[in-house]
Every structure is written in structure tokens, then in C-alpha cells.
Design a protein that fits this description.
Strand content: 15-25%
Order of helices and strands: EHEHEHHEHEHEEHEHEHEHEHEHHH
Radius of gyration: 21 Å
Strand order of the largest sheet: 2-1-3-4-5-6
Largest sheet: 6 strands, parallel
Length: about 350
């Protein structure tokens, strides 16, 4: 049955949305939402904007201004926050448009303020002027409300969805560790390496899947330190993987490890749970929300403080040495996978927000 037409939405996203060399949770989310809105009856018009977002760049701002200028009066516009929140001079004057901003990572309210000085005021201006704001976690919504004093009724939560996936078989010893994250300081690979060094006496292997192009200097240092350390031959860096290659990495794993310093939700956590893989991760941002609980209230993984290699290492040691713990966490992860939201849930929330913005 063909869905009934809802209206037209103009979706403004970075031009890297489909770049296989730069996979990210935000890009996946944007693409799945575009497809979901089209499937639910919206006429989706995509506008790809070049630029090294969220870095402020006059050429990128000019490109965004050109896109916005061409939009018809009264248009409903869904904007990726990476673009929107750095360009108030372009967007705030556009009272003729109905702007909805999709915030993946708060640029000023979170840990990235040092990277983009002055972003807080710019982000506040854009979000205050928007007709509505969509966040990807309850944690992010709470952060924006507390930081920018936005009206609660205009800030909505649409958690990322997850596709059904086959269970990873796992190994009896549990030594196949997987990290899926771009190799950047925010994702904490330095903490992970230090934690792995504390369990060098045990048997394991860790595959670190993720782009090494976001911060080449940091990625080079991490590879060098891994090679020179006591665990170098057991830590692999295959780069960014997508499609069947990424699926194979999940299928071969026993445990997801994520030493991140900032995370608004943690899509890789949900992706791992969809395969019944337990998680060892930090307590930052929306990670506890993504990890969730099994039906009996148990956690399908272990949470430790950020920037604490000793605590992360202790969690890994417990996983590797305690067969009962592995069984409990695997059982909880397989139970949790049944309650993970699908992408249709994400799309339904955003569709409702867009319809309300359209008035």
C-alpha cells in the first residue's frame, strides 16, 4: 500500500552523509531518517552542503546560505545540527522558514567547546530560533534544556533505531574484543590501550574498527604506542569498515569495548546488543541509556568512569576471568536485544515533529 502524502520536507545535511571513508552514527541516522520519512509519505528533498562541519568556515557558511536562500517561503526544513548550530547568522534571520534542528552532539554544551570556541552562544541562538529541536537521547534533551533554557515542549527525543541482526556466536573464553569508533581523542583509544596493558597477562585480541582520518596525528600516535607496547601484536587497526565487512567484525566478537569520553547515545552499543554482544563502556552521556537493562533489571554490560584505565582494565579482567559473569552478561544482552527500538520508531517521532512544525 502506498503511504498517504504528508508534505514536503527539505533535509539539509553535510555532503559527507554517504562517504564510505567517513562513516559515523550521525551520517547513518540522517540517511535512515531520510529513507524512513520518504517511506512514510513525506516528499523528501535533500540538500548536501560541503564543508568541514562543525568547523566554522566562511565558504561552508556561504554554501549553506545559498541552499537556504533557495528554499520556498513556509518550507519545513530539517537540519543536521553539525551545520545548523555553527551558523546563526545564516539561520536565525530565516523567520520565513519552519526550522527543525536535529542535534546529534551538542557542540557548545558538550566536550567540543574547546575545539570550536564561542559555539555555545551560536548554538543557543539557533536552537532558540528553531520551531523544534530533535535530540537522539533523553540525556541530550536534558543537557540542552539545562544549558540553554529552551522551552521543554519544543525539544523532542528520537532515539536511533537498530536493524535486526543475527546473534554473534561468541567464544567460550570471551577473548575477542571489538571497538567500533573513529580513532580520535574523544573516543578514548588512549584509555583503551592503557586498560588493555593491564590485562596483558591474559589471552585476548582487540580489533579497533574506525576511521583514522579524522585526527591523523592522534591516530598515528595510537598506532605507534600500540606497536611499541606490550600488547601491540594483539591490537589491530583495520580502518573504517562498512557493510559485510563490519557485519563480519561484529559476528566474530565476544565483547564491545568503548572507552569514549563523550557520547550522546552510542549507536555502536545498540548495534552490539542487537547481536547479543555485551558491552564494557564508560558512563558518559547517553551510553547508559543505550545500554539499558534486560527485563529482569540487569545490565547487559559493565560501565566504568571515563578516563580511568585501571577501572576499565578491571572490568576487562573480570570479563576474561569469570565465566559466570560472561554467561550473565550474555544472557542479559540477548534479552535486551528484544527491546531495542527500530528505525520506524525514530522516523515516527520526527515525522510527528515535522507535521507539528508545518502547522
Amino acid at each position: 500500500m502506498t503511504p498517504a502524502a504528508v508534505g514536503t520536507v527539505h533535509v539539509v545535511v553535510p555532503d559527507s552523509i554517504d562517504d564510505p571513508s567517513r562513516p559515523s552514527g550521525g551520517n547513518v541516522y540522517d540517511r535512515r531518517v531520510c529513507r524512513g520519512l520518504a517511506a512514510s509519505g513525506w516528499s523528501v528533498v535533500e540538500h548536501l552542503v560541503p564543508g568541514s562541519w562543525p568547523r566554522r568556515d566562511p565558504a561552508a557558511s556561504a554554501a549553506l546560505a545559498c541552499v537556504v536562500a533557495r528554499l520556498p517561503d513556509g518550507a519545513v526544513v530539517l537540519l543536521d545540527g553539525l551545520l545548523a548550530c555553527t551558523a546563526p547568522e545564516v539561520l536565525v534571520p530565516q523567520t520565513r522558514l519552519r526550522l527543525v534542528v536535529l542535534v546529534h552532539m551538542p557542540l557548545g554544551a558538550a566536550a567540543q567547546e574547546d575545539e570550536v570556541p564561542g559555539t555555545s552562544d551560536r548554538e543557543r541562538a539557533v536552537l532558540s530560533a528553531a520551531a523544534a529541536v530533535v535530540t537522539t537521547s533523553t540525556w541530550t534533551r536534558r543537557l540542552l534544556l539545562e544549558t540553554y533554557a529552551l522551552l521543554p515542549g519544543k525539544v523532542h527525543v528520537a532515539q536511533p533505531g537498530v536493524d535486526p541482526a543475527g546473534l554473534a556466536p561468541g567464544t567460550e573464553a570471551g577473548g575477542e574484543l571489538l571497538c567500533v569508533a573513529a580513532v580520535t581523542p574523544v573516543k578514548g583509544h588512549d584509555v583503551l590501550l592503557a586498560a588493555l596493558a593491564t590485562v596483558a597477562d591474559l589471552s585476548w585480541r582487540c580489533v579497533c574498527v574506525g576511521s583514522q582520518d579524522r585526527d591523523p596525528r592522534f591516530a598515528g600516535r595510537i598506532r605507534r604506542e600500540a606497536g611499541e607496547g606490550s600488547v601491540g601484536d594483539r591490537v589491530l587497526f583495520p580502518g573504517a569498515l562498512t557493510g559485510a565487512h563490519l557485519q563480519a567484525a561484529y559476528a566474530a566478537a565476544d565483547l564491545l569495548v568503548l572507552a569514549t569520553r563523550a557520547e550522546t547515545y552510542g549507536m555502536v552499543v545498540a548495534e552490539s546488543l542487537a547481536r547479543g554482544l555485551p558491552v564494557v563502556a564508560t558512563t558518559v552521556g547517553g551510553v547508559p541509556e543505550a545500554l539499558g537493562h534486560a527485563a529482569d533489571g540487569s545490565r547487559p554490560g559493565l560501565l566504568v568512569p571515563p578516563d580511568d584505565p585501571a577501572a576499565f582494565g578491571a572490568a576487562l579482567r573480570g570479563w576474561l576471568l569469570d565465566a559466570d559473569l560472561r554467561r550473565r552478561l550474555r544472557r542479559a544482552a540477548r534479552d535486551r536485544r528484544r527491546s531495542l527500538p527500530g528505525w520506524s520508531s525514530s522516523t515516527a517521532v520526527i515525522s510527528r515533529v515535522l507535521a507539528e512544525a508545518a502547522g
